[in-house]
Each structure stands twice: as structure tokens, then as C-alpha cells.
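Internal tracking record. Fields below are filled automatically when a chain is submitted to the structure queue. Please do not edit lines marked as system-generated. If the sequence contains nonstandard residues, flag them in the REMARKS field before resubmitting.
Queue: standard
Priority: normal
Entity type: single polypeptide chain
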Amino acid sequence: MRALRPARAGVDLRPVIAIAAVVGVLGVILVLPIGAVFFGAIRSDSAYGAKVFATLIAPATRRVVAFTVSQAVVSAGISVVLAVPVAYAVSHYHFPGRRLFYSLSIVPFVLPSIIVVICVISFYGRAGLINRLFGTDWNLVYNPIGIVIAHVFFNFSLAVRILADGWSRIDSRLYDSARTLGSRSPGVFARVALPLVLPSVGTAFLLIFIYCFFSFGVVLVFGGIRYTTLEVETYSRMFVRLDVSTASVYALLQLIVSLCAVVVMNRVVFRTERHGRSVVRRRRPLSASNARWFLIVYGVLVLVFLGGPIVTMTARAFGSPDGFSTRNFRVLFQPGPRDWETESVAGAPVARIITTSLSLAGVSGTVTFALALMTAFVLKRRRTATLEALVTAPMCVSIVTVAIGMRLVFAGIVPDLVLVVLAQTVLGFPFVFRIADTTLSALPDSYADAARSLGASRIAAVRDVVIPLVRRGLLNAYAYAVAIALADFTAVFTLGRGNVVTFPVAIYRLIGFRGFDRALALGVIYIVICSVVFVWVDRTSGRDIDRGKGNLVDYA
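SYSTEM-GENERATED OUTPUT FOLLOWS
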């Protein structure tokens, strides 16, 4: 009978071919450009070795490295600590508005750095809402404080989602046992819940550390000349001072530090996924207790921290000397004096900016998602430490370094738009792969095996059985792939050569040409697009997640 046909003899080479294809693609768009940076530096300077040594021991280098690491550690630590109560609340309790809060909380994470900058300035700047409300003149931006505030604003929701997923893997019977033995709620949290979620705490800290370590736009604006990081210095040395040798040294230092962080993170994630699976949990309503009032007050503070800058920016975008007005939005689309016309300042009309942004993000997101999904399928039963290191390798690399290398290797050969797509694929691949991989890992292999035992081909089993069961989680992964590309500023700014104008680039140019209010209006349009996308994705993916088919960063 067809259902009982024996398996074909021999070794299936298709997984090997697929892995080789993934490694080859990553090699072309990652290893080749990075190698070109270092080879170009060696070739352009006969005394390269001496210059490397001089740069490494220079006091300026030590200061840059120390500030880069310290701001990333502080930003990641504050993000994780502040996220603990919120993650515990959304994973254990049911309360009105919980789903909407969880959906919208991710919006800051997918904002372009330049929009985060104007949000923070609008709320925390010298002329911001905080200083106006309290009648103070606090300098909370354009210094390390502003850098940390912006990074926490960026990454807080990411920490919440990772920690909430970590708590979703804990069997609630452990809590019940602790209560049976006489522990009260604070004791259960301190002795059971918190220790068991520590691997997720480590994952969140290291992931956010890497993002802050490679931060570019925020440090570029708020750090100025005095407070600079390896990422900003690499860009400055390469494109401003034309010092390829020193830029390559800074890129090498970045690679070493980030590689150590990624190796540790992979070990933590691997151990977490081996020893924990998502379980069904019934959330309890918030009872009338001290914990309830603490979470309510804390939740209000979080809403102010996350929503305050966005609401302030939105209110200013609709503001005018006469009160509420849509003037800033009308000016975006209406022609005016040549020197102030949006098209002449931003480099493209607003309609083209929107279509370019969405189409480029769609292409980049699709390429990233397809590559990540194929890799996740291939590695589902063949996970090893080596393969895990290969697929997370892009996290170790500065996107500025990759962009520099691509300019050196492919300039004049590959169109700028294609280079931007390749760079954005490198940028989003590790994150999207993690979501797709965890989503597929939650599905038992027996489903596809049963379909194949009934005569379905491998492709048919995946198409007709696997994909429908995990479609919501994969939709979530695709949404992140598009959003990360849409928010990208560094790759477009570095590789676009001024010809590729997206939301972040246009906003950056408007701010630089004293078009701050128009930049705010364009930022509001971007935020509305992202909010609609993620509310829709979370509302269509929540039920699968509740049944244990969620992913690393989604626990609605």
C-alpha cells in the first residue's frame, strides 16, 4: 500500500544543500564585505600593523570602548529591570486593555532611530513637556542620559516580550506547590517565579546589549563629539575623515565584543529551549491586593514613559499658534517656496517617500523572512552549536561595517537599492530567524510525519499541514521582518547615496533644514502605519500563542 511504502534508501542531501545555500548567501552579503574592509585597510596603508597597534593603545580608543560598553550595559540593565513587573503582569493576570497595551507596546521597538530622537526631544528636551510642566531646565538629552533614555524607550517592550515568554514556559503547578507549602505571593515571586525566569533575563539583557552596542542614530544625535561609540567612530573615520585603517580597527573591536556576547546568548537560549516549552496558562484577574495597586501605578508610569514621547510628538505635529491644526500635514503634500518645499528638502515628494519606504521594506522583509524560514525548517531536526553560531553571526557585525564593505566590493556593479536590500537582510535575519525557529519548534514533528506516512510529499506536508498550524506565528515573524526594514536608517543612509529616500532619511533631512514640525508630521504617519500593522498581527496571532504555539517575542 502507498501508506506503508518504505523510506528511500540513501542519504537525503537536500538539507545539506539548503544549509550550504544559506551559508553561501550569508557569506556573500556578510563575510565578503567585511573581508573587503580589512583587506582594503591593509592594502591602502603600508604601515597598517603599526597603525593598528597605535590605535589599540591610544587613550581615545580606550575611552570610546569604555563608553560603548558602559552605555550598552546600563541601557540593557535598566530595560530588563523595568520590564520585570510588566512582563509578570501580562503573563499571569488578565485585565482590561491588556491585549491592546501589549500590541501597541512594541511600536517603539520598530521606530526608526531618528523618530525616537524627536520623540525624546519633544518630551525630555529643554523645551520638552517635562521641563514645561515642572518649570525646570533639566538637560536630559544631548548627553549620556539622553542616550540611555532613548535606548530604554527603544528596547523596553522587547524585554517585556522575552520575559513574558520565559514565564509562559513555567508550569503553574510549581506556583501552586509553593503556595501549598505556605508561601505568600511575594515569596512565590521571589523564590519560584524570578529564579526560573533568569535564563530569559539573560537572553533579554544580552540581546538588548547587542542592539545598544551597535546603536548609531541615537548616539550620533545625542552623543555629539564628546560622547561617541565604536559604531559612530567607524562611520566617522570611514566617511568623514577617510581613515580606512582606523575604521577597520574599530570594526574589529566591535566584532570581538559582540561575538563574545552572542556566544554567551546562544548558550543561554539553547539551554532555555531545551529545558522549557510553552504551557497553557489561565491568567487570573487582578484581585484587590497590594500587588494590584502596585501594578496599576507601575502600569501608569510605563504608559507615561512609552506613550508620553509619542503623544507629545503627535500633539506638536497637530499644533499651531492658533491651536489644533493639520497645517504640518498639508504642507507635506502641498508645494510651496522652493527653499522650503518638502520635495526639495527631503529629496523626494512625500507620496514617493511613502511608496519607496513600503515597497523597499516589503522586498527586504520578504527576502529576510524567506531566508529565515528556510533556515528554521532545515535546522528543526539538525540543530548544532556550529549551525546556531552561523545563523546568529550577523548579530556580531556592525551594519555600518557591512555597508562600508558593500560599497567597496559592489560599488558600480550592483544597484544601490539592491545593496540596501542585502544590508537590511543582514540586519533583520537573526531576529526573524529566532521568531520563526521558535514558532516551528513548538509544533510536534508527529504532525508532518503523519502526513508523510499517508503519502504526502515533504513539500505537501509543509504546505498543507505545518504552515496552516503555525501561520499566525509566521505572520508575526513576517511583520517584524518588514518593520525592521522599514525602520532602518543606517543601511539606507550609508548605501543609498542620497538617491534612496525613505521615512527615516526624509525625517533626518527635514530636521537638518529646520523643518522640525514637518518631520513630526511625517513621523506620525509612520507610527500610524506601524500601529495598525502590529495591532492586526497580535489580534490574529493571540490564540495560537495561548495554545503554546507562540514565539520568543510574542505572548499576547
